[in-house]
Amino acid sequence: MGNPGFRKPWWGWKSRACAELAEFDIPFAVKEYCQNQIGQILKALETREWSRWERRSLAGFALATLQSIKANLETECQSMFTGPHGSALRHADWLPVYILTATIDREQIKNYPRETDLKVCTVIWEHEPTGLWGLSFFNNHMDSYATFSSFVVDGKTTSRSNRWAVGEKGKGFVLATQFFFENVKQTVSAMTSANDSKSLKPGVSFTSGTTLESLNGNEAQRRMAPIESHEGRLDTHRHCWIYS
Fold first, then answer.
1. Which of 77-81, 95-99, 217-221 has the least mean pLDDT?
2. Cα–Cα distance measured from residue 71 to residue 228, given in angstroms and rounded to the nearest whole number
3. Among 205, 207, 206, 201, which residue's Cα sits nearest to residue 187?
4. Burial class of residue 197 (count of CB atoms within 10 Å of its CB; 0-12, 13-18, 19+)
5. CA angle 73–76–80, rounded 5-degree value
6. CB 202, CB 188: distance < 8 Å
7. Rounded to whole angstroms, how far apart are CA atoms 158 and 18?
8. If I label 28, which of 2, 123, 183, 219 is the partner at 20 to 30 A Cα–Cα?
9. Distance (Å, whole) CA 165 – CA 127
10. Which candidate, 65, 76, 55, 81, places its Cα nearest to that of 134?
11. Residue 164's beta-bridge partner residues?
């Protein structure tokens, strides 16, 4: 019998252009993703309120400073730069323009003993040659029972039974994923030869541990992505790259 952990992943979404997506735009979808990150923090701290973000707007920063900030991100959030989309971010054409971060000391985490601090990071990127933007969402702790379907199957969530999770309990996150995927497809179809660049890899993908799942065409394609870890230990990661 084959390993059930390597069964072909799949997704189940609502119909295209459904009523639930009618009011979505990029800022609203980003808000849903950030709410998902906040939910992870609320569950870790077992609280209903939290807003201690660190915000960095990088507009007007010198090129050398942006390159240095990017190098720090590559060190602190290594798996953000793995897979077909994350690897493209290593190219000099991509520079960060806004960073949203939070760190929760492991001694404060109540819901499950951890060996590392909880780190959350969202980055807005700009592709200098084309002006296209990308988004990276990263956190190094994830619910142990989360699977690929937790992110892409309508109705799936790891927060429904958790008393500390607030809001739509994952519903908005899955809808945002569908919106991003459809938006990226529209962007790709509108791209011309002038946008052709080896450093552009439009798409949506997730990394969980050593597994990378990429939403591609009409099917999900899973492959193993090597990720280095600190202190010889591999934390669980969840992030997404969206270029639009």
1. 217-221
2. 16
3. 201
4. middle
5. 65
6. yes
7. 24
8. 219
9. 35
10. 81
11. none
End-to-end CA distance of the chain: 41
Percent of the chain whose predicted confidence (pLDDT) is above 70: 65
169, 38 in Cβ contact below 8 A? Answer: no
For 170, what's the count of Cα atoms within 13 Å in the CB-facing half-sphere?
18
Tell me the pLDDT of the chain averaged across its residues. 76
Encode pLDDT of 30-43 as tens digits.
Answer: 988 888 888 889 98
Q: Which of 203, 156, 109, 108 lies closest to 12 in space, CA to CA?
A: 156
Residue 236 has pLDDT above 60, yes or no: no
- Tell me the HSE value of 168 on the side-chain side, using a 13 A CA sphere: 17
Residue with token string 């993703």: 33
Structure tokens given for 154: 């309508």
Per the document, the length of the chain is: 244
Instruction: Give the pLDDT band (50/70/90) at residue 97.
Output: very high
Which pair of tokens denotes residue 180?
Answer: 């991003």
- Long-range contacts, 186-194 (Cβ 8 Å, 24+): 187/132, 187/243, 187/244, 194/130
Q: Which of 81, 72, 75 is nearest to 212 (CA)?
A: 81
Burial class (CB in 10 A: 0-12, 13-18, 19+), 103: middle
List the alpha helices (DSSP H) in 83-222: 83-88, 149-152, 171-190
